[in-house]
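Project outcomes to date are best conveyed with an example. Our students and postdoctoral researchers have been running inverse folding experiments weekly, and each run begins with a structure described purely in tokens. The record below, which covers 307 residues, was selected by the lab manager from last quarter's runs and is presented without edits.
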């Protein structure tokens, strides 16, 4: 069985490319979904990974299944729903960054509920990973994540959680209540800096780290985008500078960070070293378009990883 289990909503992606000279805009078809991206990132670093979700019995669902099989992600815990359609989203770009437009209402993943969970597989996992999106898509999906966390912790596994707050899914007060209830039971917390400011009302990075450490996380890595990452545990705090790259699209960079980090934890790296590795992997993801195609493998990361 897979050592790392990721859970959430995968989607078919259409990512805006630079306009042609005549102004025509094209979109690159690909795949996305934050925890799916993280699963692929972990697999490309050599980890044993499985995915928990539900997708439609449709062409986008078939495309996602083929993707995971190519990437070595175990699909034994992927359900196919014949009565609901796999979600899709568009990524557009402008001077302020990248923006998402999702079409996911009543997607199979949103209809997922605790009774659908693969309990034996969860009980055997070393790490379980979910995000705010995993819970924000519906109340039943939120309950399923809580139930999965409980199963994993009861059997001695570890839990990781990325905030990935999306205001289109839920208001900040409800998102904070649900996410922080989940994150009180995690070992590795990955709040995004902008997310954390909304969810906690805090702006100082040290205060944000204090908040999530007090909440119960053993390790907190505050993801700060172009400013790098800020790692903390009970003994130390380390600012990890960004790896310099020529960035063209940051879609999925934070997901790659989480997947690469967890892959390195599974092989025995210290959390600080895992965070330094993950920072490079995330930066390299920004050098190409789309959430999945630019994710580097281990050899690519090690080729530029500072000694």
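After processing, the design step wrote out the following sequence:
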């Amino acid at each position: 069985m897979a050592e790392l289990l990721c859970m959430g909503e995968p989607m078919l992606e259409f990512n805006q490319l630079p306009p042609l000279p005549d102004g025509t805009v094209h979109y690159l078809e690909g795949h996305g979904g934050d925890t799916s991206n993280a699963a692929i990132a972990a697999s490309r670093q050599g980890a044993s990974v499985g995915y928990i979700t539900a997708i439609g019995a449709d062409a986008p669902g078939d495309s996602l299944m083929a993707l995971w099989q190519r990437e070595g992600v175990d699909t034994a815990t992927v359900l196919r729903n014949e009565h609901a359609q796999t979600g899709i989203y568009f990524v557009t770009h402008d001077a302020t960054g990248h923006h998402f437009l999702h079409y996911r209402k009543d997607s199979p993943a949103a209809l997922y509920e605790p009774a659908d969970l693969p309990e034996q597989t969860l009980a055997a996992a070393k790490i379980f990973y979910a995000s705010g999106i995993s819970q924000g898509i519906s109340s039943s999906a939120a309950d399923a994540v809580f139930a999965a966390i409980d199963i994993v912790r009861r059997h001695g596994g570890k839990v990781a959680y990325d905030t990935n707050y999306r205001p289109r899914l839920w208001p900040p007060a409800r998102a904070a209540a649900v996410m922080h209830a989940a994150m009180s039971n995690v070992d590795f917390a990955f709040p995004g800096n902008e997310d954390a400011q909304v969810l906690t009302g805090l702006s100082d990075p040290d205060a944000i780290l204090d908040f999530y450490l007090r909440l119960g996380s053993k390790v907190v890595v505050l993801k700060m985008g172009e400013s790098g990452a800020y790692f903390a545990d009970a003994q130390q705090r380390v600012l990890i500078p960004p790896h310099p790259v020529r960035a063209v699209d940051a879609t999925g960079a934070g997901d790659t960070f989480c997947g690469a980090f967890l892959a390195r934890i599974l092989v025995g790296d210290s959390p600080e070293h895992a965070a330094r590795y993950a920072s490079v992997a995330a930066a390299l993801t920004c050098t190409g378009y789309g959430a999945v195609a630019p994710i580097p493998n281990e050899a690519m990361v090690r080729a530029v990883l500072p000694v």
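The longest strand covers residues 49-56. The mean pLDDT is 95. The training component of this project remains on track.
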